[in-house]
Amino acid sequence: MGIHLRFYILLCGLGVGFFGTAQELLTVDEAVKIALENNYQVKMARNDLKMDELSVSPGQAGMLPKVDANVADNNSRQNLSQVRSDGTEVELDNAKNRNLNYGVALEWTIFDGFRMFANHEQLKENQKLGEAELKQVVLNKVGEVLVTYYDLVQQQQQLSALDSTLIISEQRVELAQNRFTIGKASKLEVLNAQVDLNTDQTQMQRQQELYKNTKILLNEQLARDLKMDFVVAPEIFVDQALILEELENKVAVENPQLQAEIINKRISELQLKQIKASRYPSVFVSTGYNFGHTESSLGFTTSSDSRGFNYGFGATLNLFDGFNQNRNEKLGKMAVENAEIAIAQQKQSLIAMVGTTYQTYLTNISLIELEEKNETIAKENLDITVEKYRIGIIPTIEFRTAQLNYINARVRHSNAKFQAKVSEIILKQLAGNLDL
């Protein structure tokens, strides 16, 4: 096979064979699914939400009565000496006394200035806050997985490009050696070709190291066996239809960080409502059923038994507490104001981040088109240079320059698509609508 034809086959896709082993293909959808099932931080966030959900109950808010069962059995043995009213003296050693009481008691706060209702609403808001925090954790973890995944796609493409340049350099060494053998080239040309080949091999090993380390990182993010081998998709497809105004609108509605700040403001308002409840009286009722048994070795009554209901009500009202009530209400109002400021700050920060990331996104989209054209031009230039080098009408430095220009163009094209994809992921993550 002629060298020109061998180069042509190489440049048309010989590098794909670098990944042609029987490795598992991990799709991006599978990676996201595994991360959502296995990632440790996602699991902990789910458990935190379950705890918040369990806390939302009237009993936790203090709306329901408290019922206790109680028993008390007190015994004593004493040496007693009594002088009765009629002057009679009675003495008894080792006298036994026993007092046994048991029963059921209920206590129920029926009014506390609406504090219990505010507390119940706060528990609901805590659950909503847990949902927002879980969504934020999921978006962060999925975003990390997607970025690492597409970084691997880019690295696969760069390995393919480096594999191609290795084969080109090997063919160049072979051709230079043949030309030297027949006396058409100097030994210097062979040595230069060998040095360039060694340089390409070094770069290849560095890139392979980075590729393997990134695989370990992705396996760690998926919380699975770190040694599991796989390949990823061969290409990066960028959503080029994102619109800035739509992203900004989604941030205001769906971004979990902003939603968490809004929920925190509502919680501050409910906490202020609980503080104000102290201005009202607290009213409670109580009832119970008790049994009693008493024994005494000495006295007019040696034993007695009792049983029956008891009931009543009570109320408390704070009249003066050192002006703490007014002070606590002022502090509560300031907490609400700070929550409003935090919302405005968070919204401005997110909108600014969307704006700057969107500009980067547009730049990367433009660079994809430019680098694609550069790769096409560089390939055509290399094809011409290979033919000229084969017939010996150009110097080796010009051949090497054309070779590096083509490889660099492929790497830049791949990197432009990766950077555009990263910008897309960040924008969708900020908008709270990453494809899960």
TrEMBL record:
InterPro entries registered for this protein in UniProt: OMP_efflux (IPR003423), TolC-like (IPR051906)
Give the molecular function GO annotations: efflux transmembrane transporter activity; porin activity
Q: What Pfam family is a match for this entry?
A: OEP
Q: What is its main location?
A: membrane
Q: Which GO terms describe its cellular component?
A: cell outer membrane; efflux pump complex
Top-level taxon of the source organism: Bacteria
Similarity annotation = Belongs to the outer membrane factor (OMF) (TC 1.B.17) family.
Annotated protein name in UniProt: TolC family protein
Species whose genome carries this gene: Flagellimonas alvinocaridis
